Amino acid sequence: METKEKRVAKQDLGKSSPPIGEIATVDPVLRRISELEVIPSTKHAYNEIAKLKTRANIAQMSLECEGEANHIMASIEKIKGVKDLQNELLYKGEEAVEIPPLPIMEMRVVNTQTNKVTQVVYGLEASMTSHRIIFLDVDVSSTPQITEQTIETQNILESKHRIEVSHQITSSFRYIPVSYPDLLGLTCDIRNGVTTRAYFVEQKLWIFSLIPVILGLILAFTVHWGLAFIGLLGLPFFLFTRPMMQSAPPERTQIKVLKLAVINPETKRIATFELDIPQIYSLGALLLWIKELQFRSPSLQHTSEMNKNLNVNIG
């Protein structure tokens, strides 16, 4: 399971990398230095290092650890991508349903008896077959680590403080199949929101006082020194301000949460799968998913009114 810390580390690692066209011209050590300064797993210990040469040496060691980890990882059997795995997981007589895959930002497994979250999974993708729903996640994370350690040593020439540099590469595969008879109920909450912002600021007017001051100085030197009093006309501008309002672009949000009551394939007990759907996933595609689930799940069908169990709240 991909943790939040791993996701943040991957995001920070990606943000600190230069554009593709500039990679060849950027020193790898300098690039790694900038990465180590912001990645959660390294920034605290790395930013404590004051010597520039030591910082560069640590960055070089981090690159070497990553290279070695990649070399070892290459010898391990790679996990295929989601699409390839979906096809291979189909058993005889099972067919994929032609419906857009459902991306899931976060899935929370809730115990229906205690109403507590027992498991959280990130970055899943759900696909639909003629017999079941398949939740899949294939993830590769690459995370540098820096820790400062205090060691016991008998060598008087060796420091008791040691900096450990490591690099962890993990490849994970998560597979959660739910057959349609095990799908007991569903609800969907969709909330639209718009946020508008405006800022009130007071603009100081002292800049306008320079006009009479400069004019008074010019007249004092060119006409008569007594005309320097004109500069005093600028004093009121130091006392007054002008109110101003600044507006910001509106922010639009849409939160989609699909909740499924299922028999958990791992525990064989009833649980609730709370699925957070990305904002970019269209409402039409999500409703299509809901209707297909209801059509294929015996527990969701109704002989007289097929859509009676479809509970969609849009607000």
Widest beta sheet: strand line-up: 4-3-2-1-7-6-5-8
Helix-strand string:
HHHHHEEEEEHHEEHE
Output the radius of gyration: 31 Å
Mean of all residue-level pLDDT scores: 78
Span from first to last CA? 32 Å
Our count of helices gives 8
Percentage of β-strand residues:
35-45%
* Biggest pleated sheet: 8 strands, mixed
Kindly state the number of beta strands: 8
Give me the secondary-structure category: alpha+beta
Q: Globular, elongated, flat, extended or rod-shaped: what is the shape?
A: flat
Weakly predicted, low-confidence segments: 1-24, 303-310
Classify the helix fraction into a percent range: 25-40%
Helix and strand arrangement:
Layout: H1 4-15, H2 28-36, H3 43-47, H4 52-74, H5 82-88, E1 102-111, E2 117-128, E3 132-150, E4 161-179, E5 183-204, H6 210-222, H7 236-239, E6 241-263, E7 270-277, H8 283-296, E8 312-314
